[in-house]
Amino acid sequence: MQNKEALTEENKTKMNLDKCKIRFKSHYLAAFFLIALATSVFYLTGENSAISEEQDSQKQNARNEEEPKARNDSVLSCNLFSGRWVFDNLSYPLYKEGECSFMISDYACEKNGRTDLKYQNWKWQPRDCDLPRFNGTAFLEKIRGKKLLFVGDSLNKNQFVSLLCLIESSLHQSSPKEVIREDNLFIFQATEYNATIGFYWSPLLVESNCDDPYTHRIKDRIIRITAIEKHAKHWTDADILIFNSFMWWLEPTMTILWGSFGSNDAIYKRVEMKLRRYEMTLNTWSNWLEININRTRTKIFFMSLSPYHFKGESWDDPQHCYNESEPIWKENYWGIGTDTEMMHAAESALKNLERRGLKIEYLNITHLSDYRKDAHPSIYRRYSQPPNEEQLATNPKGYSDCVHWCLPGVPDSWNEILYSYIINSL
Ligand SMILES: *[C@@H]1O[C@H](CO)[C@@H](O)[C@H](O)[C@H]1NC(C)=O
Ligand SMILES: *[C@@H]1O[C@H](CO)[C@@H](O)[C@H](O)[C@H]1NC(C)=O
Ligand SMILES: *[C@@H]1O[C@H](CO)[C@@H](O)[C@H](O)[C@H]1NC(C)=O
Ligand SMILES: *[C@@H]1O[C@H](CO)[C@@H](O)[C@H](O)[C@H]1NC(C)=O
Ligand SMILES: *[C@@H]1O[C@H](CO)[C@@H](O)[C@H](O)[C@H]1NC(C)=O
Ligand SMILES: *[C@@H]1O[C@H](CO)[C@@H](O)[C@H](O)[C@H]1NC(C)=O
Ligand SMILES: *[C@@H]1O[C@H](CO)[C@@H](O)[C@H](O)[C@H]1NC(C)=O
Questions:
Q1: Fewer Cβ within 10 Å of end Cβ, the chain: N or C?
Q2: Which residues does UniProt assign to the signal peptide (predicted)?
Q3: Which residues of 96-115 are buried (b: 16+ CB within 10 A; e: fewer)?
């Protein structure tokens, strides 16, 4: 219990920081509005085609039951990231919110009072193939004796908790369902499989003044752009590493520190250069991986940007995740929370690493998640200082979390994709 509560601390800060950023962005509202106008003409004909009707999906579902595709290498040659959301309340959700011992209130939207629960019933359907059905037992067998570690920010923690919920029904009833924290590391031991599933908090990958998993409500982010060892030494013994790091870089200005925190000859330089500082960090990260990763042992994944839905310039009214109960139905929708320049920086860092002999799987979940404006906690989140009813009634959007995802929900689909890689390629 204690550990679980501890696990939730970080998010309150994250939300506030994110909100600052969104406010800053509102200066560009006019520009986005123009772009939205131009593009909406384009999309008019595409309405509704990203999502199929229920009947269709139930037929689809019936077909899947007849011929389960548990292990099929062709899944990996298929583009799992292009497809559509299909309503399927027979198979989804894959677990119940209230039955997951690992659930934390940050993501427990139903417990927090959300009554429209349709967000739990969508299945991600790739266009050219079917995702294998998530089988917790098969997954745990696959990682027997191994260590799987998520590394990054609270979106990665969202996915970590989702994965624990997905496997829980495959654990012995008597085995402890506990996450133990040690500094930045949150660890769950699946003892009967001798497997470890963990999450390591380092939202900027390199050292920064936001490295405390609880206390990182810091206006001026300071990063040591070439210093990663302090965190990375905790990653070397993992067999599967799943990184993410986008959100925290979107800050318009940050301070770069040359030297170490508190030393006399340290140089602090406040910079904009959003893209360059991200590239420099990815470079530090890549160099570390190239030297320290055992290519035979460790399989590495990198999650693409998880989109947020604070501003709706590019979909129609209402312009916010608050009170949204349906996905976006415009085919090829891209949200304004999707910084393609930053994504390209990450993609080219991964390509570079591949040229240097280190293959990293890029799980390109941005676009598929972009459709899901309905799936954020909004006001059904955890509050560090809960607003009173009047505050909430007058300004629900101001109190909404449009960054993280309710569970069961979108991160389950990310994990189904991760599952298909792990089950087919390890
Ligand atoms: C794998 O899937 C493809 C198409 O999805 C199918 O044609 C093929 O027969 C499958 N192979 C196996 C071994 O199930
Ligand atoms: C699934 O959805 C359909 C249509 O909305 C509804 O008729 C049915 O009762 C639902 N089934 C379950 C198990 O919720
Ligand atoms: C899940 O995987 C286990 C171990 O591979 C297997 O025994 C079991 O039949 C699978 N369950 C389903 C529903 O496919
Ligand atoms: C558990 O896994 C570790 C590697 O992670 C291995 O060193 C150890 O021998 C395993 N223990 C058992 C009992 O299999
Ligand atoms: C890399 O990992 C493999 C498989 O676990 C192991 O056999 C090998 O000794 C490791 N190499 C180094 C240099 O540690
Ligand atoms: C929420 O959305 C529904 C329609 O989907 C609408 O009737 C209702 O007024 C909205 N509530 C608020 C508080 O915006
Ligand atoms: C990621 O997916 C998007 C949308 O499907 C696509 O446009 C983009 O090219 C993909 N990126 C990579 C590196 O595959």
A1: N
A2: none
A3: ebeebebbbbbbbbbebebe
Q: Is the dihedral of CA 160, 161, 165, 171 positive or negative?
A: positive
Catalytic site includes residue 231 = no
Q: Is 153 a catalytic residue?
A: no
Q: How far is the CA of 60 from the centre of ligand 3 (A)?
A: 21
* Torsion sign, CA atoms 246, 166, 358, 237: positive
Q: Is 130 an active-site residue?
A: no
Ligand 6 centre and the CA of 408: distance in Å? Answer: 23
pLDDT tens, per residue, the chain with 426 residues = 344 444 544 443 344 333 333 333 433 333 333 333 333 322 222 222 222 223 333 333 434 444 444 444 567 789 999 999 999 999 999 999 999 999 999 999 999 999 999 999 999 999 999 999 999 999 999 999 999 999 999 999 999 999 999 999 999 999 899 999 999 999 999 999 999 999 999 999 999 999 999 888 788 899 999 999 999 999 999 999 999 999 899 888 999 999 888 888 899 999 999 999 999 999 999 999 999 999 999 999 999 999 988 875 555 555 689 999 999 998 888 877 778 899 999 999 999 999 999 999 999 999 999 999 999 999 999 998 889 999 999 999 889 999 999 999 999 999 999 999 999 876
State how far the alpha carbon of 408 is from the alpha carbons of 97, 118, 158, 309, in Å.
6, 11, 10, 18
Q: Tell me which of 18, 106, 130, 401 is the catalytic residue.
A: 401
Q: Residues 57, 154, 369, 413: which is the catalytic one? A: 154
Q: How far apart are the first and last CA of the chain?
A: 34
| Nearest atom, ligand 2, residue 90 CA | 13
Pocket test for ligand 3, best of 64, 66, 137 (most atoms within 8 A of CB): 137
Report how far residue 74's alpha carbon sits from residue 78's, in angstroms, rounded to the nearest whole number: 6
Residues 291/235, Cβ–Cβ less than 8 Å:
no
Ligand 4 atom with the shortest distance to the CA of 239: 5
Ligand 4: which residues within 6 Å by Cβ?
145, 147, 194
Q: How many residues does the chain have?
A: 426
Report pTM.
0.84
